[in-house]
């Protein structure tokens, strides 16, 4: 979790997509699929909020996943600050990823103790606005790559999976990405009860 999310064309999302499309970085992601609307998968490039060199909030194209022996797409919010892979990003390279909704597959253990995956569910905000997922980013070959932070699942999600993205209200997401603020200040405002709809 989380391994898929969706960008739905909407007036709320459009300004972020337009700013991403104007970024000179966009043409440098050779071979990566850029998603302005539709399902976002690991390895894709999509709009992400972070601070620029002046400390102002800006929109950047970023690629989902930290490279290495295996592609890392998530980080646990409870332990990221202590992990060598994520510690520096936790301190100074935080970002917020807009999504119209995200997907999760129901997980359970069968009678023989084997992990199973079942129905696919769609999770979105109760007011059907954008979700703001917390992330961390780092530079790889001079291009920004991000991971999505996860936390223990809220009550409405737990029957499907024990983890969920760390989701913040828009105002708290802006606090989250500022390197001069303590990340713990924003994490305390995390939303734990998105509306869920079973995917068709």
Calculate the mean pLDDT score and round it: 90
Number of helices: 4
Name the CATH architecture.
Alpha-Beta Complex
Looking at the chains present, what oligomeric state does this protein adopt? single chain
The low-pLDDT segments are none
Write down the domain tally.
Answer: 1
- Helical/strand content category: mainly beta
Main sheet, how many strands, which sense, barrel?
Answer: 8 strands, mixed
Distance between the termini: 19 Å
The backbone outline, from C-alpha atoms, is globular
Strand content: 35-45%
Helical content (DSSP H or I, runs of 4+): 10-25%
Q: Which CATH C-level class is it?
A: Alpha Beta
Radius of gyration: 16 Å
| Total DSSP E strands | 13
Indicate the CATH topology.
hypothetical protein yedk fold
Q: Which superfamily, in CATH terms, is the homologous superfamily?
A: SOS response associated peptidase-like
**Secondary-structure element string:** EHEEEEHEEEEEEEHHE
Task: Give a description of the structure.
The protein is mainly beta. It has a single domain, classed as hypothetical protein yedk fold (Alpha-Beta Complex). The protein is built from 4 helices and 13 strands. The protein has helices at 14-22, 87-92, 170-177, 183-187, and strands at residues 5-7, 38-40, 45-51, 57-64, 74-76, 94-99, 101-109, 115-124, 131-140, 143-152, 163-165, 167-168, 195-198. Strands 3, 4, 5, 6, 9, 10, 11 and 12 form an 8-stranded mixed beta sheet that branches. It has a 5-stranded antiparallel beta sheet with strand order 2-1-7-8-13, with no helix packed on it. A hairpin with a 2-residue loop joins strand 9 and strand 10. The longest helix has 9 residues, at 14-22. The radius of gyration is 16 Å and the shape is globular. The model has no long low-confidence stretch (mean pLDDT 90).
């Amino acid at each position: 979790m989380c391994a898929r999310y969706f960008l739905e064309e909407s007036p709320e999302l459009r300004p972020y997509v337009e700013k991403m499309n104007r970024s000179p970085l966009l043409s440098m992601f050779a071979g990566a699929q850029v998603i302005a609307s539709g399902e976002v998968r690991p390895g894709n490039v999509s709009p992400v909020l972070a601070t620029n060199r002046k400390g102002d909030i800006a929109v950047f194209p970023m690629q989902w996943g930290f490279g290495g022996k295996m592609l890392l797409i998530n980080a646990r919010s409870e332990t990221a600050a202590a992990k060598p892979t994520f510690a520096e990003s936790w301190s100074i390279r935080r970002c917020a990823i807009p999504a119209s909704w995200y997907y999760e597959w129901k997980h359970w253990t069968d009678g023989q103790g084997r992990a199973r995956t079942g129905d696919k569910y769609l999770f979105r905000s109760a007011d059907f606005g954008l979700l703001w997922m917390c992330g961390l980013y780092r530079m790889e070959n001079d291009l920004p790559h991000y991971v999505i932070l996860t936390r223990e699942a809220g009550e409405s999600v737990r029957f499907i999976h024990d983890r969920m993205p760390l989701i913040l209200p828009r105002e708290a997401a802006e606090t989250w990405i500022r390197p001069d603020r303590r990340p713990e200040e924003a994490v305390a405002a995390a939303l734990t009860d998105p509306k869920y709809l079973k995917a068709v």
